[in-house]
Design a protein that fits this description.
about 160 residues; alpha/beta; Rossmann fold; five-stranded mixed beta sheet; 5 helices
Length: about 160
Amino acid sequence: MALAPVPVLVLGIGNVLLSDEGAGVRVIEALRQFELPEGVELIDGGTGGADLVEFLADRQKVIVVGATDSDARPGTVQRLTVDQLLPAPGESVSLHQLDLLESLRIAEQLGCAPREVVVFGIQPARIVPGLELSPEVAAALPRAIALVQMELKGW
């Protein structure tokens, strides 16, 4: 018999090999340095596709952190809902956003969707091969970390 997942998941998604694309994973790495409330799990979702369903299943709350292109200034951190991730007609969306949306849709169909999903999107400055974040995104990480921590306190 499998153990029930802890109630809250903080999921970082992105590819650390593509500079700012890895911002969500970098936030998860940084959050591991802090004491978090009981019932919170941190997961590096990397570039996971439909396999994200197993992480999302049966959670009370999921906080997703990743690079999202919202045409904001590089390094801008925005709190978004899943509905805000849906592309407008003719608008492109990142593969990771599609993977997340598809995983949430599958979880819903399976009857194990999380009750609440919040996304913290970080506007990338560059998505190019490399391990280093741009200065703008690196400077935004403390804000993203603080926003996730505030979201956890409010839970």
